[in-house]
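Summary of Year 1 activities. Much of the first year was spent building the evaluation harness for sequence design. The harness presents a backbone, in tokenized form, and records the residue chosen at every position. We chose the following record to illustrate the format because it has been used consistently in internal testing since the harness was completed.
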């Protein structure tokens, strides 16, 4: 069997995984199950009040996890850029209560409410997933999925993809630097398209050759289709207390949403 350590090395480093908060110390399996349950509960909410409280709960969990705020804001910004385009279309695509008009476009009360609800739930789900799932190194996340009986092939693809997507990106960066040193400047012209196509072709060939070498090296080390972890996961009383408290809070949000 091929063993890999769970510290992951520099390539597995993540901005949220390095911490010693209460959330970081919880069992990875418990955090994954809780994150999935939280996403389902928050996605099912239909009222603005419950969704707002769900976002407040997500902010509270993120504060317990002591997440670095700059990487967190970057990820939330990426999500809210998509929500911005949602705001540009949804309020003007429904006909339930006119609020104002912008030329031929009519903003409806129902459309604005729906866009606001989607924004609250999306940010809440994103915050909870970052707090619970992104606070563990990628190898630990992969082994937690395996312990939850996810398919071995899916776990292998997950771990290897994360490892070698970064390697492929680094190779592409070196190729761009080499092209720049040869006075290549991208323009809208056939020469640029031909050069970029050749670079992509070389990248794919190199990736295929690297994958063959990696497979041979893993086979020689006794790899049988499953990564084995040297870390044992053990759920503690604090883990059970954490997941129970969070599930009760989510159940309360769903109950409040049904009552309103």
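For this record, the design step produced the sequence shown next.
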């Amino acid at each position: 069997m091929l063993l890999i350590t769970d510290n992951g090395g520099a390539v597995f480093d993540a901005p949220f995984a390095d911490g010693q908060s209460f959330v970081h110390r919880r069992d990875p399996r418990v955090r994954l199950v809780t994150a999935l349950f939280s996403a389902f509960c928050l996605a099912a909410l239909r009222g603005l009040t419950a969704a707002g409280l769900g976002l407040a709960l997500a902010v509270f969990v993120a504060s317990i996890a002591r997440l670095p705020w700059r990487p967190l804001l970057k990820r939330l910004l990426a999500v809210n850029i998509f929500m911005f385009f949602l705001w540009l279309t949804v309020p003007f695509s429904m006909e339930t209560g006119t609020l104002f008009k912008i030329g031929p476009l009519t903003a409806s009360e129902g459309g604005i409410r729906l866009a606001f609800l989607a924004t609250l739930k999306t940010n809440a789900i994103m915050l909870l997933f970052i707090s619970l799932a992104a606070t563990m190194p990628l190898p630990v996340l992969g082994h937690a999925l395996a312990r939850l009986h996810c398919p071995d092939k899916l776990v292998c693809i997950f771990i290897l993809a994360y490892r070698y997507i970064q390697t492929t990106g680094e190779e592409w960066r070196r190729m761009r630097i080499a092209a720049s040193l040869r006075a290549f400047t991208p323009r809208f012209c056939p020469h640029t398209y031909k050069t970029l196509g050749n670079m992509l072709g070389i990248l794919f060939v190199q990736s295929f050759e690297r994958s063959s070498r990696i497979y041979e090296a893993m086979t020689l080390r006794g790899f049988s289709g499953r990564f084995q972890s040297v870390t044992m996961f053990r759920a503690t009383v604090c883990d059970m207390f954490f997941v129970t408290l969070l599930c009760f809070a989510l159940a309360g949000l769903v109950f409040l949403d049904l009552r309103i």
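The beta strands are 3-4, 98-102, 105-108, 228-229. Quantitative recovery figures across the full test set are reported in Table 2.
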